Amino acid sequence: MAMAGRSGFFPQLPGPRGDPPMNLRRFARTASVAALVIAGSATSAAAQGVKFGPTFTEFSSDALDYKTRTGIHAGIFFGGNRDGVVGLQSELNWIRKKSEPESGGPEIRIDYLQIPVLLRLNVGSSSSSGPSIYALAGPALDIKIADEIEGITLDDGFEGADVTLVFGGGIEIARIILEGRYDKGLRRINNTFSDVVDIKKQTFTVLFGIRFN
What we know:
The chain is mainly β.
């Protein structure tokens, strides 16, 4: 689908440069990294718990201002060394990110499979039933699984993957988790008009969770 007719999303320019579909080698590299991370997570036995909550995403570019819109985050996490001070936590998350131009243009929705690998610092009780405060930081790979503008599915309108930095912290009491996190995309996410405008994303998320073991 051509994007030039979608008023307010991209600047009104003479026309897109006709970007080709995602390079197969790039896709292969992305899939390989994802497979390695998933395999590493699987070796840490069963999932430690689940988290879910709302996302508040804003796109940013030099050409347009965007509003924050609410999406959703749901996922499972592995590791984290809850009993120790320092641990490594990996996750598999489904995330829906939404935004729309300040000018009142169409709402943009992108769904990602996110795979973070996070350093976790724990302070407090080492017992799973006791209170603990923790901090998280690390990179994540966001793999696009769907996108649309006002219900219309796009053809190569957005990049297939993004690399993000994730920072967060939370409190855990009696296996109940309350967490806040911020992630910042490092790469341009738009394919259309990519020669004249770079659109990136940033998201704040509030998560509620339960630890299994």
